[in-house]
Amino acid sequence: MQHLAAIMVLISCSNDLVVCNERPAPTVSYETIATCKAELKPAMDNLAAESTRPYGKCVEVDPEMMERDAAVYWEIDKNDELQVTIREEHEDPAVTAETQTTGS
After folding, report:
1. Which of 3, 20, 46, 66 is least surrounded by CB atoms within 10 angstroms?
2. Per-residue burial over 84-98, b = 16 or more CB atoms within 10 Å of its CB, e = otherwise
3. Per-residue tens of pLDDT for the chain, all 104 residues
């Protein structure tokens, strides 16, 4: 079984979601998703004090991918939830989506 680490993604948005920015997480990465989630609520409380619309999420990542050229992509979806995707920089998003859809 491959060991997974986790990262915390924090986003602050204007009330109308026109302007959203990544905010620094308290730690660059976490050894476990549980450790990340334990620190998420205090981080969100701090973010809520300075942001109209705070969003946060802990995401499992393959540590080997993070050592390569990995990029974190995020969006606020139509359900007002933060969605996070991590992929290698050279991956084509269309190919990644097609692979996930077809299971190839």
Report:
1. 3
2. bebeeeeeeeeeeee
3. 456 699 999 999 999 999 999 999 999 889 999 999 999 999 999 999 988 899 999 999 987 776 777 889 999 999 999 999 998 876 555 544 443 444 44
What 3-state DSSP class applies to 89? coil
Say if residues 47 and 53 touch (Cβ distance below 8 Å): no
What is the tally of structural domains in the chain? 1
**With the CA atoms of 4, 27, 57 and 54 taken in that order, what torsion angle do they form, in degrees rounded to the nearest 10?**
-170
Note down the domain range covering 40: 5-102
- In the block, residue with structure tokens 């996070």: 84
